[in-house]
């Protein structure tokens, strides 16, 4: 795909800002769900972000891939952990997930590359 995932993910912030301004109660509710779901409990936050990345691939959501690839990197996920997670996404999502798994590892690699 060869997308600049850092730029792509940063550019999403403008649209989200519009949603927060136009639907503040809905976005507050969504934020509360996200915070509750990501709270470390039986699973740590890194594991939850890897799950979110796999779901992003299976759901074919490029925007989600960008956010969760960055979050997985920020939480200390290794490339090997991401690849194993993507293997599960491919298993559950079949052919289309193979293509989106390629997007996800490309995004993760770009967040890991400071250049």
TrEMBL record:
Residue ranges constituting the Carboxymuconolactone decarboxylase-like domain according to the UniProt record: 24-105
Pfam families: CMD
Molecular-function annotations in GO: peroxiredoxin activity
Protein name: Alkylhydroperoxidase AhpD family core domain-containing protein
Cross-referenced InterPro entries: AhpD-like, AhpD_core, CMD-like
Annotated keywords: Oxidoreductase, Peroxidase
Organism: Mesorhizobium qingshengii
